[in-house]
Design goal:
Blueprint: E1 11-17, E2 22-30, E3 35-45, E4 48-58, E5 61-62, E6 66-67, E7 81-88, E8 92-97, E9 100-106, E10 116-124, E11 133-140
Antiparallel strand pairs: 1-7, 1-11, 2-3, 2-10, 3-4, 4-5, 4-6, 7-8, 8-9
Length: about 140
């Protein structure tokens, strides 16, 4: 990744075909293995339907999660392409879905963008009849 001091203003965009159930996640991992942000649209996961889960992993455990108001993602029965963008700002991450600003997620603990070293994309949708498919993962400078 680029010089960590240059992160503010940069973003990561993930474009994927949405699943009909399960979990899609974009994860920013730090140099120590902590997670500075875990962005997780949940279509239908363990009884939770259509909500955006945000969290960090710090000191060996998940922290208090946060959800975002609304769910500007396609409904479970609609097969379409989704664009999920996470923009690093001065003190927070800005999360957009299909170019719609959803929420901000403040930096927690010492997990500022300066320590981000890896971006991960994961899918947990074992029960989905239509699987999530990654189309692109791009950094925007």
């Amino acid at each position: 990744l680029r010089n960590p001091g240059e992160w503010p203003g940069q973003s990561v965009e993930v474009v994927y075909k949405n699943p009909n159930s399960g979990v899609v996640a974009v994860i920013f991992v730090t140099d120590t293995g902590a997670v500075s942000i875990h962005v997780n649209p949940r279509y239908n996961w363990r009884g939770n339907v259509n909500f955006l889960y945000l969290n960090t992993f710090f000191s060996g455990r998940w922290q208090q999660y946060q959800t975002a108001p609304g769910f500007p993602f396609p409904a479970n029965g609609v097969s379409t392409t989704v664009s999920l963008r996470i923009t690093v700002q001065q003190n927070s991450f800005l999360i957009l879905a299909n170019d719609i600003p959803i929420t901000r997620f403040a930096f927690r603990h010492s997990l500022s963008p300066k320590s981000i070293r890896k971006i991960q994309w994961t899918v947990l949708d074992n029960t989905a009849t239509r699987k999530a498919v990654l189309e692109t993962l791009a950094l925007h400078f």
